[in-house]
Predict the 3D structure of the following.
Amino acid sequence: MDKERKLVIAGNWKMNKTVAEGLDLVNGIKRECKDVKEVDIVVCPPYTALSEVSKAIINSNIRLGAQNMSENNYGAHTGEIAAGMLKEFLVRYVILGHSERRQFQKESDELIAKKAAAAHAATIKPIVCVGETLAEREGGQMEKVLQTQVRGSLAGLTPEQMVETIVAYEPVWAIGTGKTATSQQAQDAHAFLRSLLAKQFDDNTARRVRIQYGGSVKAANARELMSQPDVDGALVGGASLEDRSFADIIKNSI
Ligand code: PGA
């Protein structure tokens, strides 16, 4: 598939996989995807597996991501992890503002913007998640919700930082539900997000930002989703927990 932007496909393992299980998984992905050059492949294990997974992917085409980080650099923040600590394990990406964290940890757009700034300061690329709930979509609020999230959670970034930021469009109603957005719904939302980026930054910046789709992505729907002009990759939850299914998503996207 000839795309304007390089596809980036990331596996969000969420709170799954022991170190041993994570190593099995990443070694399987490494084997299955060793010849893939067309896609940036990212795995996001839980913190506890970062060290070993990091070692396992040295000299491979797989990059490491974390699922969250603190907006602070150090200090009295019990239970938190700073960007500098992630750098020790060669973490290149960090998922920020996932809808589960927005919902259960009450993360605000303002907090996510602070985390994105801290990630950039450590040269870690943030994957900033946005997306509407079913009630918001059905109530005709989708555009307003996305606008508020984009404005707030990408506030303060320079155009140069924005180009190094990935936006993940994850309609909350499609996450872990088996209900994927249709490729047209995804394309429409992505094009709308890109228009917001053009307004907030500029046309050239907006054209260069990669926007991932997330929400029940699997091998069977990856090709159709990735063929949309404004869909530049995927953030995959459930289907990233098994090497074959994650590898098939990647292979079907090329
Ligand atoms: P899912 O999760 O692929 O299991 O729907 C996606 C995500 O939450 O990032």
About this structure: Residues 12, 170, 175-176, 214-217, 235-239 surround 2-phosphoglycolic acid (CB under 6 Å).
